[in-house]
């Protein structure tokens, strides 16, 4: 009897397979696709309301679907078709609202909304997968986790930056970069504390043998070079802090030009934290001074570009150009010291 019930159960879930295929197509389109330029006048408050509603409906549909397949008796083929249709419609509505958002609103804002939208679609695909692969009789741990995953993705909509158009999105992106750079600076400062073994928490001394091993300790010359690298890392932190404050104070999104300037700042600032990380990694012993110099030069060039873009944009009115000059000087000063320390290596 149990065996006879199985094909029927499989059949009941058939519409879910079709939905999974449709959702995968939506996901592929979201990943490649560009929103269309809407013909109607675009209203941001209306957009946020609609996006919030579609995310909420999707969360509810995920709950209904999960409950229907959580215990016997399983939904009939007809009910499963209805559930599947509702899920598909909810996801199509989410994607449609994302497509309302015109390019002119700024690429930083669009990227954040697109990431949130794809996360919801991925969550729903994961949930349909789990239900299709689960044994029919029971609610699996995976199904609970997948349902929670959709809820969580749908709640992300409330964390999206909703201030003045693109400005709030750029503030949020810059603040995230600053957080990462702050952590990297603190970690490096901690490792560089005088006399500290940078690998002390990883290896036992007996394994290393000779305590003066160049591979695990910094020489005096290394430390001199690294103090200028720290100077450059701190300049990165100061640079992001100042740009963030300038965008908060003066950032506007009233014209396409202002929106584009904010996007340019967010784009180039996003290169700071990976460049800081690469420099920090090359600072661990054994130090290769040329690798350090190369990574430092890359970071310095990113910082100079950020400062240049800030200076020529609306977020930096003439009375505020002082901090741009000061930080440009700090970047040059540390880079020159790094060049001097590594000159003999060339």
UniProtKB/TrEMBL annotation:
The lineage of its organism: Eukaryota, Metazoa, Chordata, Craniata, Vertebrata. Residues 51-192 form the Cyclin-D1-binding protein 1-like N-terminal domain. Belongs to the CCNDBP1 family. It is found in: Cytoplasm; Nucleus. One of its GO terms (cellular component) is nucleus. Residues 204-308 form the Cyclin-D1-binding protein 1-like C-terminal domain. The keyword RNA-binding does not apply. InterPro entries: GCIP-like, GCIP-like_N, GCIP_C. It comes from Chloropsis hardwickii. The gene is Ccndbp1. Keywords: Cell cycle, Cytoplasm, Nucleus. This is CCDB1 protein. Its main location: cytoplasm. Signal peptide: none annotated. Gene3D superfamilies: I/LWEQ domain, Talin, central domain.
């Amino acid at each position: 009897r149990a065996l006879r019930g199985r094909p029927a159960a499989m059949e009941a879930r058939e519409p879910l397979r079709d939905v999974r295929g449709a959702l995968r197509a939506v996901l592929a389109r979201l990943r490649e696709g560009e929103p269309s330029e809407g013909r109607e006048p675009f209203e941001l408050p209306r957009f946020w309301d609609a996006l919030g509603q579609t995310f909420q409906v999707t969360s509810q549909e995920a709950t209904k679907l999960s409950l229907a397949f959580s215990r016997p008796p399983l939904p009939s083929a007809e009910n499963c078709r209805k559930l599947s249709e509702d899920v598909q419609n909810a996801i199509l509505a989410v994607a449609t609202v994302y497509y309302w958002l015109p390019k002119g609103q700024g690429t930083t804002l669009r990227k954040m909304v697109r990431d949130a939208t794809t996360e919801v679609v991925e969550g729903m695909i994961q949930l349909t997968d789990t239900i299709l692969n689960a044994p029919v009789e029971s609610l699996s741990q995976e199904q609970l986790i997948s349902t929670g995953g959709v809820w969580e993705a749908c709640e992300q909509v409330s964390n999206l930056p909703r201030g003045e158009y693109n400005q709030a999105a750029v503030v949020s992106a810059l603040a995230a970069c600053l957080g990462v750079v702050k952590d990297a600076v603190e970690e490096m400062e901690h490792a560089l504390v005088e006399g500290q073994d940078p690998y002390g928490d990883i290896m036992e001394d007996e394994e290393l043998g000779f305590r003066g091993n160049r591979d695990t300790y910094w020489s005096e010359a290394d430390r001199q070079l690294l103090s200028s690298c720290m100077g450059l890392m701190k300049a990165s932190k100061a640079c992001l802090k100042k740009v963030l404050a300038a965008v908060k104070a003066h950032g506007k999104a009233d014209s396409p030009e202002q929106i584009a300037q904010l996007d340019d700042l967010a784009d180039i600032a996003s290169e700071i934290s990976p460049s800081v990380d690469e420099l920090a990694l090359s600072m661990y012993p054994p130090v290769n001074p040329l690798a350090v110099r190369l990574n430092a030069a890359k970071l310095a060039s990113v910082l100079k570009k950020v400062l240049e873009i800030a200076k020529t944009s609306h977020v930096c009115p003439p009375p505020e150009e002082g901090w741009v000059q000061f930080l440009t000087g700090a970047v040059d000063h540390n880079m020159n010291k790094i060049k001097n320390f590594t000159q003999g290596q060339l």
